[in-house]
UniProtKB/TrEMBL annotation:
Gene Ontology terms for molecular function: hydrolase activity
Coiled coil: none
This protein's UniProt keywords: Hydrolase, Membrane, Transmembrane, Transmembrane helix
Catalytic center residues: H179 (proton donor/acceptor), C241 (acyl-thioester intermediate)
Region (Disordered): 83-117
Short name of one Pfam family: Sortase
Transmembrane spans: 6-23
Species classification: Bacteria, Bacillati, Bacillota, Bacilli, Bacillales
InterPro entries cross-referenced by the UniProt entry: Sortase, Sortase_C, Sortase_dom-sf
Protein name per the record: Sortase A, LPXTG specific
Low complexity biased stretches: 93-104
Amino acid sequence: MKKYGIILILFMTGLMIFLYPQVSRMINDYFFASSVSALYETFDKMPEHDRTQERELVDHYNRQLATNNTGFIDPFFTDTEDATSGESTAELNDNNAYADWDYNPETGADDDDSQREEWLDSHGLSSGMFASIEIPKLSLKMPIYLGASRPVLAKGVGQVEGSSFPGGGPNTHTVLAGHRGMATKEMFKNLDRLRTGDVFHIYTSDGKLSYRVYDTNVILPHETSALNIQRGKDLATLLTCHPYRSNEYRLLVHGERIE
């Protein structure tokens, strides 16, 4: 009898280990959906004055960026050598759109989180959830944060530094980064399933922005020309590592605004 008890314990232990990632993903998906729902409630209760002020700040930032774009900070660099070697990585100087946010790649993105939050707060923008993304084909809803440091990407989708803030309008190109799945979170794991013609939505306090996929491609981390602002265009690109479980390349899914 004791022998069967040990076998049962071992079986249940193995079953729990096997089911843990799946159950954890379900729980995290629920929390993502709850976070997004709470964000919508916040938007609904936002005073019109605050909504207008936020829109003006976003538009002002995006206009500055359109005339003075110095490049991008790849959110998935794993060491300082990578962070300073990309040919199109942001030249982090006083001309950068984040001129008063002194990002230092030598200290790593994690150490810069407080500076990012201070920069956003000083400009009247929340350092928490700013928007959300919905990808119907993947049954995916996730919060969007401004900035794409490691702590941010552990919580959801991040707006890549050097790209437009989510808000739409001509001469904007928002780049949204997400992990290619984590042990207990799906994230952008199935982003490679998106095809030309598929649609995704970005929700801000100003309303819904819908984008139709017009192209997908795989690049090396420093090949960022496809992420540049295109004159007169309203674009959003989803970015993740590629292939699955590898950090060697970047998968890009490009969308153009349809409404």
